[in-house]
Amino acid sequence: MRKLLIWLILTVLSGGGVVIYALHQQYEEQSAEFRILYRDITVKLAQNDVILALLSNSSDPKVVQQKFPYILRWQTQPHDPPRPDINPARAGTYWINSPQGSLLIDLPGLLADFVRSQKFHHFSLSWQGAPLLMQGAEGTDDWWRWEKQITSPSQPLSLTVTNNPDWRNLPWLLMVLVGLFWAVVIYFYNQYQRTKRQRNIADLRAHFSELSRLNAMGEIAAGMVHELNQPLTAILSYSQTAQRLIAQQQAEKALPLLDASVTQTKRISALLRTFREKLHSDEQALQPVDLRRVWEHVVTLLGNEIQRGKVTVINNIPDSLPPLMASPLGIEQIFHNLLNNAIQAQQQIPVGKAWVAINASQSENSIVLTVTDGGPGLTEQALEQVFMPFFTTRKDGLGLGMALTETLVQRLNGSIQAQNSANGGACFTLIFPFAQQEA
Ligand SMILES: Nc1ncnc2c1ncn2[C@@H]1O[C@H](COP(=O)(O)OP(=O)(O)OP(=O)(O)O)[C@@H](O)[C@H]1O
Ligand SMILES: [Mg+2]
């Protein structure tokens, strides 16, 4: 609609310009015609003065009449009333006088040729307001009017012509072409705008995908820092203890510690492998995962912390629970974060009172897991923001554990919720639909 309006305005403006130019041209042409007409009539009238000067008593009236049929009468005495009057005696006739004599001129006869060939709508020759010769209707409503007095002392006639523009002769084809021209210009401009917009969108998309790649890399880097922190701390602690035991000649006691170090190192290597895979693609290989065994493995990984906090860990996952189609390391990371948080939340609990329990149940189309603990539970703010990156209430916490956990759960089309259970401790509920397992 807007384009149509623009086209209309441009066409009207440039079409108007063309019309004005064409009208001006017509006016100039007709002005030139008027000047020629004026000049010819002046010359023709001047002839009368010459004839009057040459006529004498000896001239033969018949010959004069024959040569100049528009001289109706002539006489050697000035016509009454005396000169220099021009007498509009009868319609279209007038006397011109000189001391030698007078002539009665028949103006229509004199100018018959001009009148026949002139193309103005209205043509008139008048003397002192009285028309002597007129052709065409009164031109009062006509567009253009030219008027000039003949510069002859004996015949000061006034020549007036009027005319209208020749509408049929305006450059209509050119105006149609102008309209077409603007339509083509607007069409191509539109196309140009459209491709430019598409190019911009494509550029933006490329930019965004680059940004989201950087974003994903940032997420991965943050995840790496978070997930590698615990196993590295554990390895450091195992190795230092092992060193001490070996120094005390108790090498046999150091062996299980070194085993635990190896397990943690393997975990680091597995984590690094998944991070590397993630950098290449977002797809993860799903396989049947025995949740009960993964939980037990995580309990081993966090053995140090569990022991130190004297936390009772209860595994209520039934043996009969069907395997979950998932990435084993993903599930391990989820359990690791939940268990680690539960342990950390219970550091102020009286010795021996801390506990963490995992329960699992199977419904028609999903597996529901709950991880509960005997800690103080989540604060009101934590309940709202626990899954937000960088939300933490711990002094040395990064606030990434639960954000990462939520991402991992969502990758399996699952959901996770945080609440506090009746005893006051935290309760995380995870639901994994079977639908994704068919994938
Ligand atoms: N079991 C829990 N009991 C009480 N509060 C919890 C529990 N789990 C999480 N929270 C609260 O949620 C916050 C966010 O947990 P999240 O694991 O994301 O970060 P963090 O443990 O503080 O740091 P990190 O990134 O090192 O894990 C914790 O700081 C804590 O306040
Ligand atoms: Mg945490």
Automatic annotation (TrEMBL):
Keyword list (alphabetical) reads: ATP-binding, Kinase, Membrane, Nucleotide-binding, Phosphoprotein, Transferase, Transmembrane, Transmembrane helix, Two-component regulatory system
What this protein is called in its record is histidine kinase
Enumerate the transmembrane spans: 170-189
The protein's matches in InterPro entries, at most eight in alphabetical order, are given as: HATPase_C_sf (IPR036890), HATPase_dom (IPR003594), His_kinase_dom (IPR005467), HisK_dim/P_dom (IPR003661), HisK_dim/P_sf (IPR036097), Sig_transdc_His_kin-like_C (IPR004358)
Recorded hits in Gene3D superfamilies, A to Z, give: 1.10.287.130, Histidine kinase-like ATPase, C-terminal domain
PANTHER family linked: PEROXIDE STRESS-ACTIVATED HISTIDINE KINASE MAK3, SENSOR HISTIDINE KINASE
- SMART domains from the xrefs? HATPase_c, HisKA
Give its E.C. classification number: 2.7.13.3
Per the record, what are the reactions this protein catalyses? ATP + protein L-histidine = ADP + protein N-phospho-L-histidine
Q: Which Pfam families does this entry report, sorted A to Z?
A: HATPase_c, HisKA
* Gene Ontology molecular function: transferase activity
Where's the Histidine kinase domain?
Answer: 223-436
